[in-house]
Amino acid sequence: MCAIARQHRIDNSDEPTPIQLTFGGALGPRFTSRAEVNRRAKAATPTHAPSEHLVRVGQLHLFDCERDWTRLPPDENLPALTGQSQAMIEAMRAFARERRWDHTTTTLSVRTLTVLLRWIGAEMPIREADIRALRPLRRNLDKGTGNRAIAFLAAHDLLVPDPTTTASELWVTTHVDQYPDHFATEIHAWVQAMRGQGRRRRKPRSWKLIRNHLYAVRPLLNTWSTRHRSLRDVTEDQILDGVRQVTGSASYHRLLGLRSIFGILKAERILPSDPTRAVTNSRAVPLPTPLRDDQLRGLIERAEDPRAQLIVALVAVHALNVEEIRSLRMDLLDNHAGTLTVVRPRGRTRILYLDDLTQTLIGRWLRHRHAMWPASPNPHLLISSYGAHAANTPPQAALTITTTFRRLGLQSHRVRSDRILHEATTTEDPILLIRLFGITVPTAMHYLHAAHPAPIVRR
Fold it and tell me: In 228-321, which ranges are continuous DSSP H helix?
């Protein structure tokens, strides 16, 4: 490096200097690197005081409200960590090492916790809703890192969990609240009665069934809510017109939903009459049809990863439906006996006797699961990165299962139907189908009629 250039760069001197050349590279003079400049600037930055918004022990709440993170300053301007908060950050790093999180996951999870503790502190438990509300406002904070922070705080008794609410319940309450007041009051009364909390004693129905009914009739309710002040103003002709707007199974399910709403509200003495009583709608139940050989050839091998391959095998070999796959648990797998117990609704169970292929795929998936999430507390057999460390240990999302088949150009219910139909072609005994697949008597007879159609008698 030229000595004159070095002198002008460092000394800012204009005095004439004899021209002199010196060595460059490893033997030349070193200028301050960018990393060193940043380190010195950071060291010269004044230390911020602790937050004025720390939640102290014994502090009482006047009322509950959502925390507004939009006014949160950038990370470099956040308040300083207290000693207790710094100890929690170190505990988080140890928590991550025990679970063998990778460097990126650990860094982002610690960053999420750091933002929370700088602003709120570590003296009192943090609401789960506050953690989830922070994620959309910070870059690089995804759902997974938020869940890991939630799991860490739950393990240290520093979390106030959200009330347990299923996706179906949240969908129902959200959509019902969108209607005008009087309409919403009547629909809420129907929902409460379906949940067994009405005037008359009823068996509580699932939120999923309520959602299905409401989803089927929602277009009609949207229209009627703009024309009428109450459901009592809806006429039989409007019911019939609404049912005829769609065809096939959509028309059938729409009438089922309307009958449920108007029938229950009449029984609850909210409506004077039931306009759906005289409306009928029959549907033809199609017989199951087999899939083509080219659709099934190499189906498991075409799945993209161990989880997808196991999902395909559970449907194509054992004819499990989506909800049964989601309910599979680690503690119900018996590798020694080669069985897997499936928990079904209303306390029923079904025992799968695993073939060699399924056992191989389960072993491959378990090794993959242990490599990805070795310390996951989730008891379900199939999990994702979202549910591996979520505090509520959710099952595998149904969308993941349906997407697995969609990428193969199929639908899960078609593959399941093909498996049962193939077995029905080898027997005429419905008891065998009932024991093998855990289906009902009418369903077994339905598949037998499709596999062994009665001959047409010509007269």
Answer: 236-244, 248-267, 293-296, 299-302, 306-316
| Strands 126-127, 159-160: pairing kind | parallel
Q: Which long-range contacts (CB under 8 A, 24 or more apart) does 269-277 make?
A: 269/199, 270/186, 270/189, 271/186, 271/231, 271/232, 272/232, 275/234, 275/235, 275/236, 275/238, 275/239, 276/236, 276/239
Distance of alpha carbon 331 from alpha carbon 381, whole angstroms? 9
Instruction: Look up residue 85 and give its two tokens.
Output: 């908060």
Q: How many residues in the chain?
A: 459
User: Which residue has tokens 């019902």?
Assistant: 176
Do 207 and 172 contact (CB within 8 A), yes or no?
A: yes
HSE (CB half, 13 Å, CA atoms) of 274? 18
Question: What is the average per-residue pLDDT within 205-209?
Answer: 90
Q: What is the DSSP string of 70-93?
A: GGPPPGGGSPBPPHHHHHHHHHHH
List the one residue out of 312, 435, 415, 286 whose CA is nearest residue 427: 435
Query: What is the average pLDDT value for the chain, to the nearest integer?
Result: 83
Is the separation of the CB atoms in 424 and 447 below 8 Å? Answer: yes
Q: Does residue 242 contact residue 220 with C-beta atoms inside 8 Å? A: yes
Q: Which of 327, 332, 304 is nearest to 403 (CA)?
A: 304
Both tokens of residue 301?
């091998």
CB 190 within 8 A of CB 264: yes
Q: Which amino acid is at 85?
A: S
Alpha-carbon gap, residue 233 to 235, rounded angstroms: 6
| Token pair in block for residue 32 | 């301050």
The DSSP secondary structure of 254-269, one letter per residue, reads HHHHHHHHHHHHHHTT
Residue 60 binned pLDDT confidence (cut-offs 50, 70, 90):
low
pTM value is 0.70
Q: H or E stretch including 341?
A: strand 339-343
Q: At 137, list the tokens.
A: 């406002």
Q: How far apart, in whole angstroms, are the C-alpha atoms of residue 231 and residue 382?
A: 44
| Angle, helix 441-451 to helix 412-424, in steps of 10 degrees | 70
228 three-class SS: coil
Domain ranges within the chain, ordered by starting residue = 3-44, 78-160, 167-267, 293-451
The CATH number that domain 293-451 falls under is 1.10.443.10
User: How far is CA 254 from each of CA 85, 206, 234, 415, 448, rounded to the nearest angstrom?
Assistant: 55, 18, 15, 27, 29
Q: For residue 169, what are its two tokens?
A: 């319940």
Residue found under tokens 């593959």: 415
How many helices and strands, by DSSP H and E, does the chain display? 21, 5
Q: Greater confidence, 73 or 311?
A: 311
